[in-house]
Amino acid sequence: MQLASYALPPWVGLAIAVIVSGGAFWKGGREEQIAAGGLILSWLVTIVLRDPNWVGAQKGAFVADTCLLVILLMLALRTKRYWPLAATAFQLLCVLTHIARIVDPGVRAWAYATGQVIWSQWVFFAVGVGTWNRWRGRRRLALAGTPMTAPGAPRR
Q1: Burial state string for 114-140 with b = 16 or more CB within 10 A and e = fewer than 16
Q2: Tens digits of per-residue pLDDT, 99-144?
Q3: Mind listing the pLDDT tens digit for each residue in 15-45?
Q4: Dist. CA 103–CA 99, nearest whole Å
Q5: Contact yes or no for 92/69 (Cβ under 8 A)
């Protein structure tokens, strides 16, 4: 049996990206929407600039993932929410996987690609959890009859 038979079909990653990002744009707050936009942009750049031979590190993906790391880090530093910390940590692991492949070309393409998929899916999971919690918090406030105001806005 080939190792490739253990891989998930490509549509699984696409489905996760669409569901989480769509949910973030629909029910998430500003932080979730920024993260989802960055994730989708990074994902598209990675696909467009992918080296199909997998010789060496994927330089386009490395640049896209580093830019996403900066976006997530800025979110984590500016918000009181906790999910951006987890998303940033997973994205840092994604970038470090690129660096490992650059530093040690002996890292096999299968291990490199698998690491990238795993860490990026955990970033999507963190954004999904943040979106779920934001939606649930807004719903709870609406059911309680509490006016939903922006943080820091004066209450009437």
Answers
A1: ebbeebbbbbbbbbbbbbbbbbeeeee
A2: 999 998 888 888 888 888 899 999 999 999 999 999 998 888 888 8
A3: 988 999 999 999 999 999 999 999 999 989 9
A4: 6
A5: yes
CB 13 within 8 A of CB 118: no
Asked if 67 contacts 44 with a C-beta cutoff of 8 angstroms, the reply is no
The tokens describing 142, both together, are 């609406």
Task: Report the alpha-carbon distance of residue 74 to residue 9 in Å, rounded.
Answer: 33
Six-digit token string for 39: 């994730």
69: helix, strand or coil = helix
The rounded distance, in Å, linking the Cα atoms of 127 and 138 is 17
Owner of token pair 């002996």: 106
Cα separation, 13 vs 32, whole angstroms: 19
Residue 72 · residue 79 · CB < 8 Å: no
pTM of the model: 0.83
Whole-angstrom Cα distance, residue 2 to residue 21?
33
